[in-house]
Amino acid sequence: MANVKENAVQNESALTRLSSIPDTQGITKYNMYYTTSRMNVTLHKGHASAPAVFYGHTDCSLTKAHLCLRRGDAKTSPMVAFAKVFMTSRHMQLGRGDYHKQQETSNQFALDDLRRAKNLFCRSDYQFSTAQGSNNPDKKAEFDWRKDRSKIAKTVYECCDSNGRTVAKMSSGGAFNWSKGGEIEVADDLDAGSTEMMLMSALAIWFMEALAYQSIFRGYASGKEDSSSMSKEA
Question: What are the pLDDT digits (tens) for 27-79?
Fold first, then answer.
């Protein structure tokens, strides 16, 4: 019983530290708009009328799903990252490149695990490590996606690196928003590959939260449909 109380205190402290992290300077916001399906989105730096810079879509079966991120505005654009989602465990794997080519050539991509936190009080949080963007060739860069559990029936996450710096944020548009799926913000000082991994991991969590009916209401603030005081939009 003492251990349970201690864990609760530690997690409350962690949430306090998270909320006190200052906003990262130089952040680009990607607005997610649905296509003809609520399983597919286009990512825009600004309003939906601006050209889409990424296209996210799903390939689903009864037991697993592939989420694909393409650089461009269509399903035929080059795939730059993907996520394997295992429906029964909420475990996910992230990969770079095109998984279709992996199947054709039998080459194995390096996959990074995107795992739920084991702690009972933080089961909505996720962690992953990746060699992409790491300054140390012998050590992967580590990231934590932490859910703001004070927002009931909303999906709001912040991603912090191993130093506690916020490098990305994700907010869902909610179940009743039929045009906008949400917002993803990524720090500008990440390289292109790391940015794509941040977007892919955010989309994977966004997808999983939607399946679990956790994204009932809009997670981002009212009046922030197309602009943000902390964001840089093209």
Answer: 999 999 999 888 899 999 977 788 999 999 988 766 667 899 999 999 999 99
DSSP string, 87-124: TTTTEEEEEES-HHHHHHH-PPPPEEEEEE-SSGGGTT
The whole-angstrom separation of Cα 35 and Cα 41 is 6
Distance CA 10, CA 8 (A): 5
* pLDDT single digits (tens) 97-148: 888 776 655 556 678 999 887 665 556 789 999 888 777 777 888 999 998 8
Length of the chain equals 234
Query: 9-37 burial by CB neighbour count: b if 16+ within 10 A, else e?
Result: eebeebbeebeeeeebeebbbbbbbbbee
Q: Is 29 in contact with 184 (CB distance < 8 Å)?
A: yes
**108-129 burial string, b = 16+ CB within 10 Å, else e?**
eeebbebbbbeeebbebbbbbb
Residue with token string 């990305």: 168
The owner of tokens 């600004």 is 46
Q: For 182-221, what is each residue's pLDDT tens digit?
A: 999 999 999 999 999 999 999 999 988 887 666 677 777 7
> Residue 27's Cα: distance from chain center in Å?
15
